[in-house]
Amino acid sequence: MSTEPSAARAARLTIALGLAAGFCEGIDLQGPGVAAPGIRATFMPTAQQMGSFLAAGTLGLFIGAVVGGWLADRIGRRRVLACSVLAFGVFSILNAWAPTYEWLYWARFLTGLGLGGALPMLVTMVAEASAPERRSANVAMAYAGLPIGGILVSIIASSIAPENWRTIFVLGGVVPIVVGLLMMFLLPESSEFSRVRAAGSGAARADAGNLFKIMAEGRALPTLVLWVTFFLGLLILYLLLTWLPLLMTDNGLSSRQAAMAQIGFNVGGAVAALSMGRLLAGRWRMPSVVAAAVGIPLFLYLVAHAGSAFGTVAACVLLLGVAVLALQAFFYASAPTLYPTWIRGVGVGAVIAVGRVGSYVGPKVGGYLKGLGHSSPQLLMDLMPIAIAGSAFALLLALFKPRHRD
After folding, report:
1. How many domains does the chain have?
2. Which domain holds residue 125?
3. pLDDT tier at 206 (50, 70, 90 boundaries)?
């Protein structure tokens, strides 16, 4: 009997659970930003402390991404992904129990460790479960789970009082615990990983997960470009995800209006991520990347000058979400195609870890600029040179062709 139907079912299950994992990560990654007004009212942190809290998860994520990617190339994808999703669910609930700012900070850091192990495997397993012509589309589809999770958490934030912010972290914990348990019992190991591991020589097995090998065989330049692109892109994205609700309320919108505008950012991002998967597989690959790269500084400028009229702000934020998340989908779809199977986990993990340096810096930059007394429009305009540089590197990345489809 042919194994093709069972292989196809395994692939569909992997992609579905990857989308679910992306959804969970979207809840948890964007939860602190939409909960920030309530956290600020509860603990009264300084602007710098708020920036440190918002960045704490990404500091843990940096460590988790490198370690998780290395482990996945050594012991397998499935166990690392399932355990990581379970871990960030448990630690997210610890955020909800925080009695002090210090507790909240360390709970957020531990949540980031779990997130870090999950993200590289989410991308890697979906890529390895997909047919070569569907890899970009399916990775982008799984990535679309992040803004969809952000939509849900923003809707919840807009429907509860700011002082009930702990509810957001409870949701961010319970859902991934359920998904992690499903992965533990239902998710098959990557067939590509199993095949390559079984067929590999002793030397290839010894090199599995070797961080230094990601720069070998002509991969150094595209890897460095990918690193810089991820760093700049995630700096912009996470500054916006964590500070945009506060910037909008400081500029005259209510907390509910700011949360609704944040929903628009994620709606635009989800549509863009789903669309990019199809576009990246065909002749619209370069035009779509160019459009998104040009759109980021353009819509950032429009958001900065939109004033306090809710309709105008919401429309500009939605378009900004389209541009920013479209490029993010492109970045994530590009990463696994650069590396062979035996170092794909650590390669994608390293890319994500470098990007998380940017996601750590972004919230800190926002806190620093707010601490200097910069207004919301001024702070957004301060980001313009970074946005332009990030778009330029994204265009450079688009010139590289996928190297590995094994």
Report:
1. 1
2. 10-187+219-398
3. low
Q: CATH number for the domain including 386?
A: 1.20.1250.20
93, pLDDT greater than 90: yes
Phi-psi label, residue 209: left if phi above 0, alpha if psi -120 to 50, beta otherwise: left
Distance separating alpha carbons of residues 44 and 234, to the nearest angstrom = 27
Are the CB atoms for 122 and 345 separated by under 8 Å?
A: no
Nearest to 370, CA basis, from 215, 223, 250: 250
Least Cα distance to 22 among 119, 89, 108, 136 occurs for 119
CA angle 284, 289, 295 (to 5 degrees): 125
Quick one: pLDDT band at residue 178, thresholds 50, 70, 90?
very high
What is the DSSP code (8-state) at residue 131? -
Q: How many CB atoms lie within 10 A of CB 120?
A: 35
Q: Is residue 262 part of a domain?
A: yes
Distance (Å, whole) CA 172 – CA 158: 16
Q: Which of 226, 264, 267, 244 is nearest to 354 (CA)?
A: 226
The three-class DSSP label of residue 284 is: coil
Cβ 147 vs Cβ 19: under 8 Å: no
pLDDT for the residue numbered 2: 45
Phi-psi region of 276 (alpha: psi -120 to 50; beta: other; left: phi over 0): alpha
Alpha helices in 251-309 (DSSP H): 255-280, 285-304
How many angstroms separate the Cα of 318 from the Cα of each of 66, 292, 315, 391?
A: 32, 13, 5, 18
